[in-house]
Write a structure and sequence with these properties.
Elements (H helix, E strand, L loop, with lengths): L1 H14 L8 H4 L3 E8 L5 E7 L4 E9 L7 E11 L5 E9 L2 E5 L11 H12 L10
Antiparallel strand pairs: 1-2, 2-3, 3-4, 4-5, 5-6
Pfam family, one: Chitin_bind_4
InterPro entries: CHIT_BIND_RR_consensus, Cuticle_Struct_Prot, Insect_cuticle
GO molecular function: structural constituent of chitin-based larval cuticle
Length: 135
């Protein structure tokens, strides 16, 4: 019985139409433009464009380079066409606060309900009293 299940799965995988997932022409896209510059202190910038319409550019800067709190901040943009034909474009910042993309195709959370906002404001206005422990 196990053999039949494995055989059925193997036949299903072999017969599956994955042409919508694997697009061989994408792997052969030529690089139309490529620029890269890097400085010894860690600053860099790059830009590239492929023959299939992918365009990306970014610039990285080391913040506070001579301190213990040195951090890399990268700002960039990406533009391409999704498999369904939708043009995708977004900007991003990546730094000590994480990756922060901004684009019209990205989901947006719903607004915070008014009751929650009032509750958060009440908590901020009335902090919990500090209890001192005596040992």
């Amino acid at each position: 019985m196990k053999f039949l299940v494995v055989l059925a799965v193997a036949v299903a995988c072999a017969a599956a139409d994955v042409s919508h997932i694997v697009r061989s022409d994408e792997s052969q896209a030529p690089i139309v433009r490529s620029d890269y510059e890097m400085q010894p202190e860690g600053h860099f910038q790059y830009a590239y464009e492929t023959g299939n319409g992918i365009v990306s550019q970014a610039e990285g800067v080391v913040k506070n380079p001579a301190s213990e709190n040195a951090a890399l901040e990268v700002k960039g943009t990406v533009r391409y066409t999704a498999p369904d034909g939708t043009p995708i474009s977004y900007e991003y910042v990546a730094n000590e606060n994480g990756f922060q993309p901004i684009g019209s195709h990205l989901p947006v959370p719903p607004p915070i309900p008014e009751q929650i906002l009032r509750g958060l404001q009440y908590i901020a206005d009335h902090p919990a009293p500090v209890v001192k422990k005596t040992v």
